[in-house]
Amino acid sequence: MIPWSSFVQKAQSLIDPANFNIPALSSPDHNPSKASLFRQQFRLPDSQNPLQEITADLVLPLPNSSANQADSTRRVDRPGNTYAGRLHLSERFICFSTQPTSFIPSATASASTTWTGQTHGTGPSGNGFILPLSCIRRVERLHSASHVFSLALTTWNGLLYKQQELNFVPQRLILQLVGSRQACERFCDTLKKGLREGMKEVDSLRTVVSDCYSEYLLSSAKAKGQDGKEADTRQPPDAGLGLIFRYPGDARKLRDRSKMRLWGEYFRENGRNVTLVRQPTFHKLIRVGLPNRLRGEIWELTSGSLFLRLHSPMQYQQTLAKFEGQESLAIDEIEKDLNRSLPEYPGFQSEEGIGRLRRVLTAYSWIDPEIGYCQAMNIVVAALLIYMSEAQAFFLLSVLCSRLLPGYYSTTMYGTLLDQKVFESLVEKTMPVLWDHLTKSDVQLSVVSLPWFLSLYINSMPLVFAFRVLDVFFLEGPKVLFQVGLAILRVNGEELLETQDDGSFISVLKSYFSRLDESAHPRSENPKLRAITRFQELMVVAFKEFSGITHSTITETREKHKGAVLENIETFAKRTSIRNLGPESKRLSVDDLGTIYDRFYETLYQWEQHQRVIEEETRRQERKKSSRLSMLAPPADTQVGRVGLGPSPTHMDYDAFREFLAATSKWAVADSPGPSRKGSSSGKPVSWANRRQPADHEFMQRLYRKWATDPEEGLDLQNVVNGLARLKGSPDIMNNISYFFDLYDDSGNGQVDREGILKISEALLFLSRRGFEGTITATLSVEHPNSADRDHADNSLNTDEKFLGSVSAFIRRCFEYADPSHPENQKTTQEDVTAEATEKLDSFAIGDDDDEEDLIDVDDAKSTNSPAPDVTPQSAKSPTAESDSYDHNRSTSESANQALDPNNPLHITLPTFRMVVLADELLEQFFESYFPQSFHLSDHPHPAALAASSSMSSNLTTFSNLGSIRSSSLSAGSTAPVAGASGGIVPPGKGLRGVLDNIVSDGIRMAAEVKKRMDEAQRDLERNALGREEEEDDEDEDDYPRRGGSAIAIPGGTPSWGAGAYGADTERRSVVRDADRDLLEGAEVLGGGREERSSLLDGKNHANHAPRKVSSSATSTKGGRSSSARDGEVISKLVDFES
Amino acid sequence: MSESASANAPKPSSSVKLVLLGEAAVGKSSLVLRFVNNDFQENKEPTIGAAFLTQKCSLPTRTIKFEIWDTAGQERFASLAPMYYRNAQAALVVYDVTKPSSLTKAKHWVAELQRQASPGIVIALVGNKLDLTNDGGDVSEAAVAAQNESESARDGDEGANEEDDVQDAVSGDARKVSTREATGYAEEEGLLFFETSAKTGTNVVDVFTAIANAIPESSLKTGRGTGAGTGQTSLARSAEDSRVNLGDRNAATAKEGCAC
């Protein structure tokens, strides 16, 4: 016999450790991943992944059990059982199953789901074992003639305690691997690694096992056999409240004792708790009902919650300790129900029982805050606590919530609703006559069946029977609930057909449940038949007649109804939350609110997922560095959440808010995609990368802070709705102006200082940089009639450009009419203030009349347009500006100058701000219509569809655009050598007319800053746009013949841009947009394709499971569907390729 | 349940589907239990999904058989509610007079019903736990209270939910929702309005009687009769009275309403 270690060394030398199990990572599975199927079948914790699998024979040695000496002869004669099956290895477990399985990535999808087919009462894992590697004590390689690899596993079974049991023989399993030498060696190598890790966990194994009643049972059996007095040296482990308050039902009638004996025998032969090997007897013993004291342990074992407990044996106690004394909504809700959980059981009329229930529910609400507490959990946990300890119940509850009853107790209870739909459709399929009757008499089945599922029949049937259902449920999974439910209806079919309404329907079933213990055939001659109870009959019907209802039936039917159920829930949730938004929301239309609601959650979920992906990516990067083994963690859950699935995120942070705004307003879309977002370039899904990138502007931050109740916490739907309601809800311009003013009133004292004024103007430029969407039109009245040159310019200027003029005028006027904030000025009496105000009003009016000097006039724009974006032009300008200004408006400029001096703090008040705004037609229109309307809700097409950022560059109204237009018109009319954005020479005289003095220069510096930034942004954008277009042109030049020309026009900019250029530009834009739309449509088709595919599956399955019904017509539709699904696939590939 | 009017000539009988909605722990199930069994339990098993009960209500001209759907109050069960209020002809929206938030929730339910339930549904707004207020104080000491204690299946500590509120209030009046506020809202929305105590029985039967009277004859499946509004029997009047002056009502009158 080759020693294990040398074998391993040999194996290692042959196998490059790098080539095992890595493919598992790279295959991102959309449907239940192989890993999750694997975990489901063997009920393993989420940390486990299928690493290796191999065909093998399990040879069980001769039964070594039995303290009975008489049996010793049998031991020699009886040959061991041999099972053929697959052997699987995960990080911490070795599993063997006779059910055909394959979870290795290379396996086809169909093969990996076969276990979900009929299980013939053996449970999804069939016969075999699920052993934690930590319970394996020794592995030997045996010499074997027929098999190259034959391994003998010796377990810790019965050896974890010093006390030796009588006639104890160590458990030894023989596995004969069938496969190529290399495959076997690879398997063994992985096994060796796992075993080494497993050794660390022997201690927790010992802890966990000590809570198992089986250990006590076997050791005390020995004690009794040896010496009667010594029997109670060890306290029995906690086997639930039943030990104190008696177990429900009559133990004699349940034949508890003989069941116990049978189980004792089974344990001795096949191992107990973690080391148990499942043979057909195991499943039979479960079907006849578990003995009271072992029930908890077997539940724990068959559901897999034992493995969770093994993984972190102290989690329950630690959770309780960690959160001790803390309060939560869940705890309040739990308290309300503690006294009303299985009140008929004496244990729950005592402090002991109620205390246990409280602790388990509370601890669970802490570890799973998404579920918290849901009514019905109290009933289920109460039932569990009759048979198991608190910690056991805690882990079993967690398996229930996550795996056995997915989504049942979530905040939307979508799992419950979904399974009701599934149940209804199964009834329709299996009992069409009854279904028709129910539909006709308008009886809603789910009002009856919902509690069955939600509380696992515990409060529908008498407890004894409900526990029998649970015995099978934990072994075989959720399908059992459906089988039993269908059987109930089948058995009562005739009576139910006579009922006419909900009331009688319910009472038929109620009376049936109360007579479950009676004979099913009371009048039968045959005493055996007479002895069959109604419950037994029910079980037979459930598992024989409805044996066709398998796990895959359920999974597929769930898949089919999931969309509709979630949609229903979401409609309800949306309706309810919109209705409950409060009075403020009434200022918006229902459609608008709906749009806000949808966009709010869409943004949140997208954002959430985006964060998850990034997080996962960084984690993976880190892991790559650290160790290879840990790379095996499950891939990120890339599914985007939705409202229907449970507790939604409720608050958006600032970054998510930006995303929201970008989907709402054009101006919130960034000018240059990509670079502004840190860390997002790698690993993000394609769909995200293609989205519009939100801008980040101070104005948006202000909006965020203004809307948020608590900026730390973020914005909830109510905040967003209220915020938008104030902006869009009233058409009142005054309201909008004062809202805007408030945004910049940092100190809250009704004053905006110099800094604020500049920021306001910056914001105005920011908001207007994508044009006004036709909401603002300049009329002739705004134009300044005093200059011929100007008139000429006006003709060629569009509203966007005029608006720049308005903004510069705004800055100047603000400073002109600002109040000084000096202390001595503040001392002025009330009258002074009013006098001042009137004076101001007057002067304002005057100022308006001979309004000649805009701070950044259209003409000035040219000068601000100078080459270097820094301060250099200022020096060049200043002298001329000064000389110019002296002639004009010295007094004004001086006062304004003073105002700009940082040593003279100043501020404007709301009335001033209002006056300044109303003084300008464009600004007035800005606040009256553009600003509120720039938030697109239901009344406009979703701007995101138009917002592919590359298409926007040309639409930006920037100083550089303006400059180039201006200069082109100039170059036509004058001799001055003017270059556009890159020109450096300031033409003397002409263009400087508007530049006044130092006041202005400060403003200009600001404007130059803005301009510089926008310029850069635009250049970026143009570069991008150009690059992108070139790429696209390469792909399909013929489609967009025009684009090449316009692409040239952008960087050159100046020559062709006049009045006409704009028109050409729009055309260009629309071309790009069309291209974008194509992409979008492609994406839609992609989505559609997916749907098609899933429905194709449905179709197939349908045909499989109800072959009689579907027949030939179905096959034809199937064909049609499959072709359309293929189309979808092809398109999706195309789209992938493109993007 | 028995029908006291059984001696009379058979009256037309029709069934009415009634649904109870409202925040958790406002006493929906207790109201039903009081109405159906004239009983009060400190600790009722929680309603999973919904409970179904029936009770007849004998009016002078006809008999109404209430099919009562008592729904679970926990917030997350709300999405199941449409299943239960589907086709309902009447609804009892219950709040707790000692808990203002429960009235808000009740308003949400009313809005939901008005938009989503069958048109013409008769909605009654019911403020429960009147026994915890001064108005209900006298009543809670009346004969009915004694009866409750004997019938209470389990012992005292379990009654905590309802009793807590009383002890909180220094004055002994735990009322947090004024009758005027609720009446105002009910009038605005065209709802029947009552303040009740399931514990003492105050007004419980009256609520159901008023609903029975308010169900338009046209919406009844069977039966003729003089119509809801016209039959001003003493019974109907007593229900009317109760809406005006709740404090004076004593438990005895509540009992005479329906044949329970």
TrEMBL record, chain A:
<feature type="compositionally biased region" description="Polar residues">
    <location>
        <begin position="1110"/>
        <end position="1123"/>
    </location>
</feature>
<dbReference type="Pfam" id="PF00566">
    <property type="entry name" value="RabGAP-TBC"/>
</dbReference>
<protein>
    <recommendedName>
        <fullName>Rab-GAP TBC domain-containing protein</fullName>
    </recommendedName>
</protein>
<feature type="region of interest" description="Disordered">
    <location>
        <begin position="1082"/>
        <end position="1139"/>
    </location>
</feature>
<feature type="compositionally biased region" description="Polar residues">
    <location>
        <begin position="892"/>
        <end position="901"/>
    </location>
</feature>
<dbReference type="GO" id="GO:0031267">
    <property type="term" value="F:small GTPase binding"/>
</dbReference>
<feature type="region of interest" description="Disordered">
    <location>
        <begin position="859"/>
        <end position="904"/>
    </location>
</feature>
<dbReference type="GO" id="GO:0005096">
    <property type="term" value="F:GTPase activator activity"/>
</dbReference>
<feature type="compositionally biased region" description="Low complexity">
    <location>
        <begin position="672"/>
        <end position="687"/>
    </location>
</feature>
<feature type="domain" description="Rab-GAP TBC">
    <location>
        <begin position="289"/>
        <end position="477"/>
    </location>
</feature>
<dbReference type="InterPro" id="IPR000195">
    <property type="entry name" value="Rab-GAP-TBC_dom"/>
</dbReference>
<dbReference type="InterPro" id="IPR050302">
    <property type="entry name" value="Rab_GAP_TBC_domain"/>
</dbReference>
<feature type="compositionally biased region" description="Basic and acidic residues">
    <location>
        <begin position="1012"/>
        <end position="1028"/>
    </location>
</feature>
<feature type="compositionally biased region" description="Basic and acidic residues">
    <location>
        <begin position="1089"/>
        <end position="1101"/>
    </location>
</feature>
<feature type="region of interest" description="Disordered">
    <location>
        <begin position="616"/>
        <end position="647"/>
    </location>
</feature>
<feature type="compositionally biased region" description="Acidic residues">
    <location>
        <begin position="1029"/>
        <end position="1039"/>
    </location>
</feature>
<feature type="region of interest" description="Disordered">
    <location>
        <begin position="670"/>
        <end position="692"/>
    </location>
</feature>
<feature type="region of interest" description="Disordered">
    <location>
        <begin position="1012"/>
        <end position="1062"/>
    </location>
</feature>
<feature type="compositionally biased region" description="Polar residues">
    <location>
        <begin position="863"/>
        <end position="883"/>
    </location>
</feature>
<dbReference type="InterPro" id="IPR011992">
    <property type="entry name" value="EF-hand-dom_pair"/>
</dbReference>
<dbReference type="InterPro" id="IPR035969">
    <property type="entry name" value="Rab-GAP_TBC_sf"/>
</dbReference>
TrEMBL record, chain B:
<dbReference type="InterPro" id="IPR001806">
    <property type="entry name" value="Small_GTPase"/>
</dbReference>
<dbReference type="Pfam" id="PF00071">
    <property type="entry name" value="Ras"/>
</dbReference>
<dbReference type="InterPro" id="IPR005225">
    <property type="entry name" value="Small_GTP-bd"/>
</dbReference>
<keyword id="KW-0547">Nucleotide-binding</keyword>
<feature type="region of interest" description="Disordered">
    <location>
        <begin position="221"/>
        <end position="244"/>
    </location>
</feature>
<feature type="compositionally biased region" description="Acidic residues">
    <location>
        <begin position="158"/>
        <end position="167"/>
    </location>
</feature>
<dbReference type="GO" id="GO:0005525">
    <property type="term" value="F:GTP binding"/>
</dbReference>
<dbReference type="GO" id="GO:0003924">
    <property type="term" value="F:GTPase activity"/>
</dbReference>
<dbReference type="InterPro" id="IPR027417">
    <property type="entry name" value="P-loop_NTPase"/>
</dbReference>
<feature type="region of interest" description="Disordered">
    <location>
        <begin position="145"/>
        <end position="182"/>
    </location>
</feature>
<protein>
    <submittedName>
        <fullName>Uncharacterized protein</fullName>
    </submittedName>
</protein>
